[in-house]
Design a protein that fits this description.
The chain is an all-alpha fold. The protein has one domain (8-55). The protein is built from four helices and no strands. The protein has helices at residues 8-26, 31-36, 38-46, 50-55.
């Protein structure tokens, strides 16, 4: 699995995931919505999104060869 989630995208996924889980646990949102928060949280933490792989998206910065 090559990392394809980086930078602002990673931070946004982690914040969204934690927020959804927290709101679901607090009863503000239905529990199933809170459980959906596991997906963005996990993809943000492992830096890999299967949907990005399917659609050929990559938000990780690339390193240029320094020769």
């Amino acid at each position: 699995m090559k990392a394809n989630v980086g930078g602002v995208d990673k931070i946004a996924r982690i914040v969204l995931g934690v927020a959804l889980i927290g709101l679901g646990a607090a009863g503000v949102l239905p529990l199933w919505v809170g459980l959906i928060g596991i997906i963005p949280l996990a993809t943000g933490l492992i830096n890999w999104c299967p949907a990005y792989t399917i659609f050929g998206i990559n938000s990780c910065p690339t390193q240029e060869n320094k020769e």
